[in-house]
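hey
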């Protein structure tokens, strides 16, 4: 992956137009602007209902914005976006398994 600056990566991800579908690996946020003050999550879309994206293992939270990302982008966001870390709904223990699952779905894992 070319982009190493996470803030620039998030800005790039926000501009993507592809609408996520169930099963896609995404960066989801409460609002379209993906502000660090809003809730966010990296994971797989489990359900789409009432203009909200429900992400696997994120509980009952529905996110208004979601953009498809690669496993590599997800890993970078989770590791290098410290100002978002305190808002992330996922536990630190569950994230490596999610990243590995994304890598497998993207054809890069074992």
């Amino acid at each position: 992956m070319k982009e190493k600056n996470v803030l620039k990566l998030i800005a790039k991800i926000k501009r993507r137009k592809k609408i996520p579908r169930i099963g896609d690996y995404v960066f989801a946020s409460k609002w379209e602007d993906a502000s660090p003050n809003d809730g966010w999550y990296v994971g797989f879309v489990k359900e789409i209902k009432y203009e909200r994206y429900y992400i696997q293992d994120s509980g009952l939270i529905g996110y208004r914005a979601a953009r498809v990302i690669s496993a590599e982008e997800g890993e970078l966001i989770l590791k290098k976006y410290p100002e978002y870390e305190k808002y992330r709904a996922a536990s630190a223990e569950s994230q490596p398994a999610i990243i590995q699952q994304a890598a497998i779905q993207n054809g890069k894992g074992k």
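The helical segments are 6-14, 71-80, 82-85, 95-105. The mean pLDDT is 78.
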